[in-house]
Automatic annotation (TrEMBL):
This is Glutamate--tRNA ligase. The gene is gltX. ATP binds at K244. Catalyzes the attachment of glutamate to tRNA(Glu) in a two-step reaction: glutamate is first activated by ATP to form Glu-AMP and then transferred to the acceptor end of tRNA(Glu). It comes from Microvirga flocculans. A motif ('KMSKS' region) lies at residues 241-245. One of its GO terms (cellular component) is cytoplasm. Monomer.
Length: 446
């Protein structure tokens, strides 16, 4: 069996959102698991709307997710291939010229609906005589070009949806080439899949009807068909569809918010599947969990609150080596003992800044019972301090004052950190150190 060649084909007309990322991850991780090739194909034939800044952003997003492409191609550099394919289809009679204006087509559509007929193109252009075509040209009309569908039932076996079929007799012949000679999505996509030898087309279920049309174009060009997998789409927690135009859950926004790429990838891949949604730190492990037959056909909700929860779980289990360089970028002195002390209280790695402040100051202590804190200072253990110091100290305070439980621990936490919550003080106290601790217990900011 040949190794798979897959592609992710965004239009660089905006920042990709988490729904686009689901497509990219399923393609890239499938190729990764099977030793195949992952191609990034920019569908940038719309030269007016396509921007290099968005192409650069998409490449950055994929690198951040850990799935850089094995190759990059741009449709804007491949027009000669599309021109050649269009000429072949014209020569075979499958691509034919049409001269109707948008207004004329809309009038026909409304008339068909009024008569109870399906509003599909009536192929009037195929009935034009040479003289009529000449007259239209003399009027200055430029043709758009439609692909003549065979009115048959097109079927294929889909890796996600099982056996699929579309009655092409219920579809209008699709426009492949506009009046100005530019191409719509359908033809360049098929030509690229043929030229790049794409073996698997893995994409959202909104392309199912497109697939029937594209299968006919593959066949008209004499090319073998790829295997198709149409997965469920992601929607927002409130049920809205995702849109680049509206900026929903862009990968750039998630990255800027401080989320971990593994958390984003875990939720994007596992939501709406038979697998329990959980943080998966290793992409190879995540790739091993992909089973197209276990992806639900119902839209899957992408919940930002669930993403925050996954992100926190991932960080709580994250070893120091995985984060050392990032901690060093924040503060070179944030070492392993600090990370192990605070990671259980983090939602995002950058939250360490708050706990670094708690350790090093300045902290304004909160002291409500001065007598109790004074008694605690009297039995403060001598340096050096280690992981056993907190227990030894609190036992001594308990013996001296008779106070226990929350009434013992909370006043000490408030005096040392100024906060009612936080990491275990057994790990935090040695990081605060004797001098800062004494200053804070005396009521001074330090």
């Amino acid at each position: 069996m040949s190794k798979p060649i897959v592609r992710f084909a965004p239009s660089p007309t905006g920042h990709i959102h988490i729904g686009n990322t689901r497509v990219a991850l399923l393609n890239a991780l499938y190729a990764r698991r099977e030793g195949g090739t992952f191609i990034l194909r920019f569908d940038d034939t719309d030269l007016a709307r396509s921007k290099q800044e968005y192409a650069d952003s998409i490449e950055t997003d994929l690198r951040w997710l850990g799935i850089p492409p094995d190759a990059i191609v741009r449709q804007s550099e491949r027009f000669a291939l599309y021109d050649a394919a269009a000429e072949r289809l014209k020569a075979s009679g499958r691509l034919y010229a049409c001269y109707e204006t948008p207004e004329e087509l809309e009038f026909r559509r409304k008339r068909q609906l009024a008569r109870g007929l399906p509003p599909i193109y009536d192929r009037a252009a195929l009935k034009l005589t040479d003289e009529e075509r000449k007259t239209l040209h003399e009027e200055g009309r430029k043709p758009h070009w439609r692909f003549r569908l065979d009115h048959v039932n097109v079927a294929w076996d889909d890796l996600v949806r099982g056996h699929c079929h579309v009655d092409c007799g219920s579809l209008s012949d699709p426009v492949l080439v506009r009046e100005d000679g530019t191409y719509l999505y359908t033809l360049p996509s098929v030509v690229d899949d043929i030229d790049l030898k794409i073996t698997h087309v893995i994409r959202g279920e909104d392309h199912v009807t497109n697939t029937a049309v594209q299968i006919q174009i593959f066949e008209a060009l004499g090319a073998p068909l790829p295997t198709f997998a149409h997965h469920s789409l992601l929607i927002t927690a409130s049920g809205e569809g995702l849109s680049k135009r509206l900026g929903h859950l862009s990968v750039k926004g998630l990255r800027d918010a401080g989320l971990e790429p593994q958390a984003v990838a875990s939720l994007a891949v596992l939501v709406g599947s038979a697998e329990a949604v959980r943080p998966v730190a290793d992409l190879d492990e995540l790739a091993g969990l992909i089973d197209f037959s276990h992806i639900s056909r119902a839209p899957a909700k992408f919940d930002e609150s669930e993403l925050d929860h996954l992100n926190a779980r991932l960080i709580h289990e994250m070893p120091y080596e995985a984060v050392r360089a990032r901690l060093s970028d924040i503060d070179a002195d944030l070492g392993e003992s600090f990370w192990n002390a605070v990671r259980g209280n983090l939602t995002k790695v950058r939250d360490v800044v708050e706990w670094a402040r708690v350790v090093r100051g300045p902290v304004t202590p909160v002291i409500e019972d001065k007598a109790f804190i004074a008694a605690a200072m009297d039995v403060l253990p001598p340096a050096p301090w280690d992981a056993t110091t907190w227990k030894a100290w609190t036992e001594a305070v308990k013996a001296k004052t008779g106070v226990k439980g929350k009434a013992l621990f909370m006043p000490l936490r408030l005096a040392l950190t100024g906060l009612e919550h936080g990491p275990e003080l057994g790990a935090l106290l040695p990081l605060i150190g004797p001098e800062r601790a004494k200053t804070r217990l005396s009521g001074q900011a330090a």
